[in-house]
Design goal:
Chains A, B, C, D: This is 2-oxo-4-hydroxy-4-carboxy-5-ureidoimidazoline decarboxylase. Chains A, B, C, D: Pathway: Purine metabolism; urate degradation; (S)-allantoin from urate: step 3/3. Chains A, B, C, D: It catalyses: 5-hydroxyisourate + H2O = 5-hydroxy-2-oxo-4-ureido-2,5-dihydro-1H-imidazole-5-carboxylate + H(+); 5-hydroxy-2-oxo-4-ureido-2,5-dihydro-1H-imidazole-5-carboxylate + H(+) = (S)-allantoin + CO2. The structure is a homotetramer of 293-residue chains. Helices cover 41% and strands 21% of the residues of chain A. Chain A is globular, with a radius of gyration of 23 Å. In chain A, helix 3 crosses helix 4 and helix 4 packs antiparallel against helix 10. Chain A has a 4-stranded mixed β-sheet with strand order 5-4-12-13, with no helix packed on it. In chain A, strand 12 and strand 13 form a beta hairpin. By secondary structure, chain A is α/β, with parallel strands linked by helices. Chain A folds into 2 domains: 167 residues, Orthogonal Bundle (UraD-like), CATH 1.10.3330.10; 111 residues, Immunoglobulin-like. Chains A and B meet through strand 10 and strand 13 of A and strand 10 and strand 13 of B.
Chain lengths: 293, 293, 293, 293
């Protein structure tokens, strides 16, 4: 149930808490502290007030708050004792489809993490691929205690920013979405390449999982961005273009088998809220790509 | 045992036949016919004379000659009743390492082929990857009888040209080798990329088999060509460049994870005796490739 | 004075003629013939009706109509006895600023043309640079009489299409404008190049005349297209980018003097109603361009 | 008259001085000091000994030595009272073909320079274009006295290194030559572009002076480097490629007029002893270049 910022600004504490409380999981005091600072001119300002409430809390309160977060891929995720928002987010990186071996790996990393830091591993899974979560686990396990505590809070702020953007609509929305787009230019004829098959894969370990499949339109673009309307999960990707078919259909000589058939462009996304434009310029004998805009 | 063309030109028939006879498998009459046309100014002329002997023979003789060739991947390859030259060549495309399923597929294609045409499937395996052999099987099964008979003879001529180039040294050697090379230019600094890891994979089905692993030298090239001194097997390949490590080692900002890490260039080779130069021009944010020279 | 198509559709002949008559210079019968075919659903349909009136006229009428057109760069242009529309159009390609020598050349070509064909040289000057007009003169002087007569009519149709688009507003406007744009991507840092100086030159003979001067914005584009809202004059152009200054301002090493300083992109426009996107991808050591979209 | 290093090593002082004396203009003491340090294993070591003799001299001696150098573009160049080596070198940058205005500019810069520093402006003209000499004049006029004195000595060392490399042949020759080359790859067909016209211009002020004109060979290269066997003069250059003709001759559609006709690549040379490879990759609709190797 989405609420407008102006309606929210007019609410008494109980109603306010019902809306924004679930944002900061199991910590109703955050909503209460924020309510005292309203009304808010922007949704971003509301989120800033909620973050400020966490930052201003005594360390013991912060620690309790962090400890209250569910284990990623852990027992809590199975037992159903987490908020609906948590459940939804964990699905997006494929953590709900772990193999037994992966499940054990995640679990064991999580145990090592909790043993070292005394709180569960928290990460905004909507901003990461499965691969990236594993990398972050390994990297953050090496942190000092205070660095990691700050990192955990930052991840909570990413999570809550997304939740708030889902829950409240109004002026000054925080930037929580990114965009991945492509464009194919056929420099053999100096025109956009229309009707070329394009696939997007998320790379995980040695595997590649197709997450989009489309065809270029008359302008050489895809009708919709490859990813949009949500954070771009940090991770490795591969675009695959059916360049060989494109020229075969136009009876352009390119060798038998053609010098270029499926052209893969492999790249990583590091900024979930950024715009990644990854175009292809091609002839039957050459191609180039770049991070565009 | 390699013989010089001038020595060969001076030989009586029995010695001559001992040298060039195995070239045209189980067909001593080809060597005899060629001997009558000597001496030869070039090795290419010697091979032309041997091909002419085959072309001039009555169809029944030609057919018997073709039928005498061993089954590819078939019983003959297991039983050891083929010439040493055949055995060596079949190994080069990995046909000696077929899985049981692949073995059955090849065998069944071979049976269908023999049933349709009345002679075994002949292909110069040193000029093809395993993938390409399968493609040729499927394509040639659709041929008319006379087209396919000509194709089979042409493949025998490819095979014998290679054998002759192995057996005789002299003027006018036939062109039987190709070359695959690369070059990495770091256009971020306008210099060759030195010390960059490069791997070459042969693609087969959905798999990729690494066939070379090297590092660029100070000129951005590899010390030796990636493939040289033999035909380039027709097929699909992928070069992989460690672009991410290159820039990480030079502390050049490229994102975390880096926008470009392993850069794959996927291409096909169609001319076994050609020169394929497949360079990479890169920055941390862009790359291009082309069939060069 | 611009009139709407619906108003025009409701007009009696005299008012109708006052609006669209000047479109087909000194030939009121064209407007009259078109009026009889109205009302028109689109401005394009109105123009088609006017062209049809010309095509349906007896050859002698057509010839008189063509002969009534003013001499390009000739006496008529000086004496002021042409319509206001003609005068305006001839200015746009710089024909009003010819040197004495150029004036004589144009005049002599025009005389040769009239001597051969019996009517003045007609060209839609808004669709051509000065250079292109000269080229067309030379090319069309070699035409056969009937081919050239058709060409002259076609040019009149280009002229009148532009005039009609200026005079009448409504549904289904004819496409009479093109667009030239650019974009600079700095692949050294994987971002648009902001604040880079860009100049556009029209090339004429051995000279270059600057027709635009601007700076890229934060997205690497120019705030306005380099040419828009009118036909792109057919001819040769050069874009010049201040790449050296861009990297000097960012303290990026590029040599002394820098390997790339002013980067010129020289290209021609052949389709006045087309979209030409001519981007630059650059590092201090490399650049590329292409006809984009 | 070229002498071998081994012959030179065996010479008594008078003969030795006759060979290498003119290298350090009007300073026979340099040759004498070097002779005492012989024999030399390499020509580079000989030059190092001569430079060392200059560096070890008292400042007054150095100053006298520097002052003895002829005025660039000044009276000495007209009166014939300089060594043959000086005369030859000044010709190479076109200083012997100055217009009256340019002559006055050079003369006035030279006067300002002498007034400030007390010695003539010395520059190794074989390492600079006319444009670059003017730039150096302006830049060096701003130097502090001691910085400029060191710069003047460095220029003398460049001059003498070139003279020595002309006068003595032997092991360990100093690197005094550079190379400028190009290569055209037609990525429309994936092959080198053969028979394409290429011109090289030296840019000076707003003008362009053609210094080479050639045609690509079957490998897309020029039979000889564009510049080789001498230092590459520091300065601005433009390569021009007849891309339009190339595709017109092959009946490849590229627009009328063609989108690309003459393609200019404008670049600077900063390292006279370096290798500049400036290739062109092109289709009728795109091109790219880079500093290659």
């Amino acid at each position: 149930m989405v609420v407008s910022l102006s309606d929210l600004n007019g609410m008494a504490l109980p109603a306010f808490e019902a809306v924004v409380g679930p944002t900061f999981e199991l910590a109703p005091w955050v909503a209460a502290a924020a309510h005292a600072k309203g009304p808010f001119a922007t949704v971003t300002a509301l989120h800033a007030a909620m973050m400020e409430a966490v930052r201003a809390a005594p360390h013991e309160t912060q620690l309790g708050f962090v400890r209250n977060h569910p284990d990623l891929a852990g027992k809590a995720a199975r037992a159903g004792d987490i908020t609906v928002e948590s459940r939804h987010e964990q699905a997006s990186a494929g953590l709900d489809a772990l193999s037994d071996e992966e499940f054990r790996l995640f679990h064991s990393l999580n145990d090592a993490y909790k043993a070292k830091f005394g709180f569960p591993f928290i990460i905004c899974v909507r901003r990461h691929t499965r691969d990236s979560i594993l990398r972050q686990f390994e990297r953050r396990l090496k942190h000092e205690q205070d660095v990691e505590f700050t990192t955990a809070l930052q991840e909570i702020f990413y999570i809550t920013r997304l939740r708030l953007a889902d829950a409240v609509i109004g002026d000054g929305m925080p930037k929580v979405t990114g965009r991945l787009s492509t464009h194919v230019l056929d420099t053999h004829v100096g025109r956009p390449a229309a009707g070329m098959g394009v696939e997007l894969y998320e790379l995980a370990g040695d595997g590649a999982y197709r997450i989009a499949r489309t065809v270029t339109n008359a302008d050489g673009r895809t009708d919709a961005p490859l990813i949009a309307g949500k954070p771009l999960p940090i991770g490795r990707y591969e675009l695959r273009f059916a360049v060989g078919d494109h020229y075969r259909n136009r009876a352009v000589e390119g060798g038998d088998p053609p010098f270029l058939d499926i052209v893969p462009l492999r790249f990583s996304i590091a900024e979930p809220e950024g715009h990644y434009h990854v175009p292809l310029l091609c002839t039957p004998w050459s191609y180039s790509t770049y991070r565009g805009s």
